[in-house]
Amino acid sequence: MDIFDKAFNYTAAREMQAVGLYPYFLPLEDTEGTEVVIDGRRILMIGSNNYLGLTTDPRVRKAAIDAVARYGTSCTGSRFLNGTLALHKEAEVRLAKYVGKEAALVFSTGYQVNLGVISCLVGRGDVVVADKDDHASIVDGCMLALGEMRRFSHNDLDHLDRVLAKLEPEIGRMVVVDGVYSMGGDLAPLPELVEICKRHSARLMVDDAHSIGVMGRGRGTAAHYGVTDQVDLIMGTFSKSFASLGGFIAGDESVIHFIQHNARSLIFSASMPASNVAAVLAALDIMENEPELVDRLWQVTERMRTGLKALGFRMGPSCTPIIPIIIGEMEKTFLAWKMCFEAGLYTNAVVAPAVPPDQCMLRTSYMATHTDEEIDRALSILGEVGRKLALID
After folding, report:
1. Which of 28, 66, 141, 253 could pair covalently with 103 via S-S, beta carbons 3.0-4.6 A apart?
2. Alpha helices, DSSP H only, in 290-329?
3. Which residues lie below 8 Å from residue 330, measured CB to CB, with a gap of 6+?
4. Over the stretch 342-393, which tens digit does the pLDDT of each residue have?
5. Domains of the chain, with CATH numbers?
């Protein structure tokens, strides 16, 4: 058998392309935050993770440009060798303080944070327990680890309790959850998770990729619940509220020191370019000094949520700026995406295996920079599409 047979026989994406319902890898010709240009058309964006709208902020842009002028375009080496700049260290100190931890460590992508942290901490004989709705990077980090991976049903505290109770006392254990779940937009119940982990002597790691800049006045899910000192590790990404690229892990200094010297995805990857780090620092300045941006994000979110609820859409348990519009069937989901797109509205079509086959959805997400008029326009388009497809009355 030719190992390439699976590629030669893969037709699903081409079939969707042939009928004009393929929603992925669309090239953006320009972006101004809440609007993008595709094929010369201006389209309202409600599918971005740019929660605070900082990717186009002039201060963030200038910081990145100035860093290129000073440091060039690349560090050409790993953090472990020649790739650590003073900017990286400054970012680590400030990020640790921002999320309320002793120390932090910057990686080149958020995906690499989860790969490196989980795989270096969960060794032979250890067990990592993950929520079934955890991000793919967490799953892959668990699979890379030499220890054993176990799962518990999404936000099912009794199930987690049973999984941990079956472990022998001498086994090292860590629970990993998303703070905000990237598809459903719901929260991990951290206070209850903390208590369960304490009862079973398990460490708790929270992926706050979609929480930083959003929850807890911008400081994340643990801050939202007031349990920062009881969560062992906080992970964050820079590709969302921080308007850049990269990620970090924060926790006790001794644990971060160990990760720094053992995480393969850190040691064997080129470090973040200065421009990306400078953008993070500029975004952090804004987040610290302009908390009204977070307030505006929530005003936009609640305006949209109220409008979608009034129209009669199914949104699941979302309580964040990630608001799924649950459609169900894959074909109808692709059709809804196409109709929205043709009407000038950019959403994300999400189908299995990212969600259960009967829970296909349009994933929408919102920015502090959306205007009330833009939100009303989005609601108008979604309402029209929803009625044509009999998704709402």
Report:
1. 253
2. 292-311
3. 351, 352, 357, 360
4. 999 999 999 998 899 999 999 999 999 999 999 999 999 999 999 999 999 8
5. 5-56+291-388 (3.90.1150.10), 58-289 (3.40.640.10)
